[in-house]
């Protein structure tokens, strides 16, 4: 994959992860609703927000891209499962945009991880 394209994908994932933090950290009503529904309010909301911040930073640092992508896949994989099992595809009449964003983020993180698989220390 071209370096510019790869960097672009990493930036997109980081932006998606980091832009959602304002909802989690400010206690937006939609964020509180989601985490109450899955039984993780408030500690899960803040904790997952911190993990998303960390993964968004790690995915931008060349030596930790693999860790950021792996962490992103774990976090977003959990979000996708919550949508499929507890929340539903559409949350608070959002038209499914949260679910779609999670799926896109997961796929992009998987592409990123695949492209840096040679850098994963425990696979060497």
From TrEMBL:
Keywords: Membrane, Transmembrane, Transmembrane helix
Transmembrane segments: 7-23, 43-61, 68-89, 95-116
UniProt xrefs under InterPro entries: DoxX
Keyword check for GTP-binding: no
Subcellular location: Membrane
Any Pfam family hit: DoxX
Domain of life: Bacteria
Signal peptide bounds: none
Principal location class: membrane
Protein topology in the membrane: Multi-pass membrane protein
Protein's name in the database: DoxX family protein
Organism this protein belongs to: Hyunsoonleella aestuarii
């Amino acid at each position: 994959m071209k370096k510019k394209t790869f960097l672009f994908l990493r930036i997109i994932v980081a932006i998606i992860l980091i832009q959602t933090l304002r909802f989690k950290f400010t206690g937006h009503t939609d964020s509180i609703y989601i985490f109450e529904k899955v039984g993780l309010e408030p500690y899960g909301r803040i904790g997952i927000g911190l993990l998303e911040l960390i993964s968004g930073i790690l995915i931008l640092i060349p030596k930790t891209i693999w860790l950021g992508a792996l962490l992103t896949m774990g976090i977003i994989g959990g979000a996708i499962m919550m949508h499929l099992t507890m929340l539903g595809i559409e949350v608070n009449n959002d038209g499914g945009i949260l679910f779609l964003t999670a799926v896109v983020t997961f796929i992009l993180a998987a592409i990123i991880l695949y492209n840096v698989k040679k850098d994963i220390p425990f696979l060497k």
